[in-house]
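A reminder before we start the practical. When you read a complex entry, don't treat the lines as separate problems. The point of joint prediction is that each chain is placed relative to the others, so the output describes one connected object in space. Small molecules and nucleic acid strands, if listed, are placed in the same frame. In the example below there are two entries. Take a minute to note the order of the lines before looking further.
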Amino acid sequence: AQSVSQHNHHVILSEAASLELGCNYSYGGTVNLFWYVQYPGQHLQLLLKYFSGDPLVKGIKGFEAEFIKSKFSFNLRKPSVQWSDTAEYFCAVNAVNNDMRFGAGTRLTVKP
Amino acid sequence: ETGVTQTPRHLVMGMTNKKSLKCEQHLGHNAMYWYKQSAKKPLELMFVYNFKEQTENNSVPSRFSPECPNSSHLFLHLHTLQPEDSALYLCASSQDRNRPYEQYFGPGTRLTVT
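Here is the predicted structure of the whole assembly.
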């Protein structure tokens, strides 16, 4: 069965620090990959997605993610975080004709 | 706003009560989903409807009963719940379950079972 692992449960950074959140999945076929963000008290919203093509995907608010097929990874990055990036981040994967599977989430706290 | 609304936003119910959660999407999508979000756990997919037909039931206890009267509305009927059912229940929609898609989420209903 598909599974998604996010190894960092809680990350604490200072403003302007660089961010990388790990995401690994366990499925060998063609996959679609997503990162969602949930700001405090708000709904889940899409940050970025990968379906095919360039493995380096750019999303909203300066986030990007890189799909490395050989490592089954889709890590999220941002060169310089802001206090407003404090939120919970969820990686999600769906294989063709399968439903989406989410990771447990990584809580990011950015200190001003 | 994502175009997916959920009511109520908060619900406290006793174990013998019967209540319903409502979800409505204004996006013209054909697939709708119920998820359970508990702290420090992955989102758990509960039910999937595609073109009003239930296509997935991930071993959800029968005390949860979904209903999809049309492609814009989705309900989750609750009865004789347990305290461990306390969680955030999220509704989502997407264009079509069977093609590459992104899901749009509602704000959730925070359920507390006492």
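Discuss with your neighbour: Chain A is about 0% helix and 50% strand. What might explain this?
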